[in-house]
Every structure is written in structure tokens, then in C-alpha cells.
Write a structure and sequence with these properties.
The model has no long low-confidence stretch (mean pLDDT about 80). Helices cover about 35% and strands about 10% of the residues. The chain is rod-shaped, with a radius of gyration of 65 Å. The N and C termini lie far apart (about 155 Å). With about 250 residues, the chain is an alpha+beta fold. The protein has a domain of about 130 residues: 60s Ribosomal Protein L30, Chain: A (2-Layer Sandwich), CATH 3.30.1330.60. One of its GO terms (cellular component) is plasma membrane. It is a single-pass membrane protein. Its main location: membrane. Keywords: Cell membrane, Membrane, Transmembrane, Transmembrane helix.
Amino acid sequence: MRPVSRIQAAAIASGIPPVEDAAGETWMMTYLDMMTLLLVVTMAMLALAGKGHARPQQGVPPVFTAKALTSVEAPGALLLVPQPPSPEPVVVEPEPEPVAVVEPEPPKPTTQDLLNELPLDQLGNDIEVVTNDSSVSFRISSEILFPSGQSDLNLGGLAVLRKLLPVLDSVPHKLIVAGHTDTQDIRSARFPSNWELSGARAGSVVRYLQANGIQPDRLAAIGYADTHPLADNSTPEGRARNRRVELILER
């Protein structure tokens, strides 16, 4: 008895008269295998599509979602490299500027401070001490220092200046020696006017002070003639008061 193939068996079972296949059943087997594979793939795709509508389990993300399958990326979006988030700017607080400490200036010495520095107790009565806002003056009559109409110190003048030396040497301040005359004109070969006489008398005192230890850079000699009177030149007493030498100690 001739064997029956699967195709003929299937045809007999379905009531279809069997057809003789001269080429055999090889192509039919391939065809059935392919159909079976397509059926399996179709069922798998349907199963996956059905899971996309189901609620995903917690902690397990869905493989495909409707939003993911229908979303359209912008052109070239897949080529963009994700950029790292920009770091927040670091605000650097400026360092506080150093506060300059201004030390207060020492107070300027007053005339009273200058007087307190001077040993005035041994000056005697021939030297008059005069103070103002900026200096201390030692006023000496020209009648004590010089002969009349002359600029050379006499013995009495040398003795008075000798008493003044410790006072002037106790401080480092500038010392101006100013010569003054009255309004009586003097006309001689040595002193054509009171300007020369007053300047020469101031210069004689400066030379004496320098010779006795007072630093020369502290000294200055000025002749004022009769331009700075202290009293009325119309009286003998007033003219005698105006003839003087003043040693001005600047603080």
C-alpha cells in the first residue's frame, strides 16, 4: 500500500479529494513553516501592543508606549550631544579694602609750652621777655649793648648776652636777631643811614652767639632801621625805647 503524505491526509480530513503531487511535498512544508512563523510573529506583536495600554508595574518601565511610538523628534535631534548642566556662577565677594589708620597729628606747642622749656629765672632786669601767638622775643635796649652810633658790643652788652646763652641753647628753634633804630638820621662813612646801623648791630649779636656755641643754621640777622617803632619818636624816652635789639625765638 502506498503511504499517504501529510498534505493528502489533511485534504482527506477536510473532505477535499486528494491531488497527486508529482513534485512531492517539500515546497508545502516550507510554506507551512513560513506561515507558522508569521503567525507567531503576529501574535507576539499583538501581545506587545496590548501590554502598551496596560498600567506598567511599579519600578519596571514599559518597553513601548503610545507617546514614544508616535512622537516625532526634531530634525537632527538624534545627532545632538547632551550638554552637561551649566554650573552656577560662583560669586566672589570682594575683599574689604584695608582701612587706613590716620594717626592724629601731635598738637603744636603753644607759646606757654615754649616758655616752660626756657630757664628764664636768671635773665635779670636788662632783658625784657615778650610773647605772642607764634614766638618769644628777648628785647634788649641798644643803650646797654652798644655805644652811641656804633655796632660793636660793649662790656655791658657782652654780660647781658652771656646770661641769655643758656636760654637760647636749651631749645632747637630758629632765632632771628632784629636791629631797630629811632628816626634820628645817622650819616657817617661806616653807616650812611639807619639801615646799615641796624643791620650791623644785628650782625654783631649773631656773630657773638655763633662764637659761643649757637648753631649758625638757627641764626638770621635783620635790620629794620626805624620802621618798627615801639614808642613816639618825638620824645627822648620814646626814641630810647625804639633803639633796641630783639632776639625772636620762633616755636
